[in-house]
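WARN no homologs supplied; continuing
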Amino acid sequence: MTKRLRWEVSPMFLEKQSLITEAQQFLLMLEKRNLANESLEWYLVNQLKAYLTSLSTATSTQEIRMAAEKLNMFCVESMDWDTDLFKRCSAITKNALRFSKK
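OK structure emitted
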């Protein structure tokens, strides 16, 4: 008789993957543009890469919250709040912060 291995994916893993996918899509959209060195978008790309690295290695909701707060701080302090760029960045951080409170 052979044993069947059962692989289960945790809800945290699925939610974290969703957050990663959302940020990756935004990053890819930005990278398709011809970004000038040291422009707002160039800095945002760097911040998103750091955010994605933090999310990928996060093992707790606290680490996800810290990554989201850091990205959110950049967005709030660096961007015009009426722009689509800010609204997209803010939505990404709000989703991560909402998840980190579960």
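The chain is about 75% helix and 0% strand.
OK
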